[in-house]
Amino acid sequence: MHLLLCPDSFKDALSAQAAARAMARGIQRAAPQAHIDLCPLADGGEGSLDALIAATGAERRIAYVHDALGRPTQAAWGWFEAERTAFIELAEASGLQTLSADERDARTTSTYGVGELFRAALEAGAAKVLLLLGGSATNDAGAGMLAALGAKLLDRHHQPLAPGGAALAELHSLDLSSLDPRLARLHVEAAVDVDNPLLGRHGASAVFGPQKGATPEHVAELDRALTHFAEITARTLGENHRALPGAGAAGGMGFAARAFFSATLKPGIELMMQQADMSHRLERADLVITGEGRLDGQSLSGKTPIGVARAAHKAGKPVIVLAGSLGEGWEACYAEGVTAAFALADGPMSLDEAVTRTTTLVEARCEGLIRLWQAAGS
């Protein structure tokens, strides 16, 4: 019996790696001789770097960068030597989780540290970067990243702009002549978990700005500033990417990746599975177990369990989803290749208790599932 375990994280309870290990422990109690393949995954958001490193065996490296407020900090990135590929997670350098509630200001936070991570990758000799977008504290459409890589964003007095998205309203000229020339040879793929455009009521500022500290007035200010940036970018490059699905990801970083790096934007789970060699792993599997904190109708928009289920269905493999809870519309997941789905809770419990017991519950559910699987096959 060959089992493929590829969960996402269970938010506030278990990382994807810890969830996969808990699944394995439960399975081993029921089937000590089972062949278990651990392949923790993510959908491109926070935690994707750790999942990629675990799935590929890439080297975890540390770079000294600046956070979203310009403070010196350390950020992790991944280096996969065999493919000369760097894994860069935006949230490591410019993540919302690194700021306290009163520090969050979408007008001034910057992606400069992400540019510094790109520099580290280029210095290592990267031919490819997998850019993981999600969990950002920023709304500057990648302007800070560009500045770190040598671009000059100047106001009408030929002075560099202040950090942040709001300052883009003062942009007069965009000079790319000093942009790191190594970028021209770099292949970039960006993992996105949203399909929002850059601007408007469905854009980066309106949809994601409020969670980064933006008031309604700030949202309007930021949308105008990003509109101005998009116009100057279009004149400079001769291409307009403001309406591209995913351009609004991570405060407009999807836009910057496509416009300045010619990046391919793909659903995060697809890129993660591709890098983890999921197709070959599925060939060997008799059963696939995945999961995350919540399974509901919105999971169909690109969450890990559904991405796994779709791939497994194409390979003709059964898939079981374990979720912290099953929310409204979860039954639609059956049409996406899910064989069965189960909530972890074994009785009435508070959220705090569920979080505390997640490891034990995952182990117990997996043990029970494998005992049932063996009985059905006997």
From TrEMBL:
Q: Which Pfam families match?
A: Gly_kinase
Mitochondrion as a keyword of this entry, yes or no, is no
Q: Name one GO molecular function term.
A: glycerate kinase activity
Keyword Transferase part of the UniProt annotation: yes
Q: What is its EC number?
A: 2.7.1.31
Keywords associated with the record = Kinase, Transferase
Q: Which family does it belong to?
A: Belongs to the glycerate kinase type-1 family.
The protein in question is named: Glycerate kinase
- From what organism does this protein derive? Vreelandella vilamensis
The beginning of the lineage is: Bacteria, Pseudomonadati, Pseudomonadota, Gammaproteobacteria, Oceanospirillales
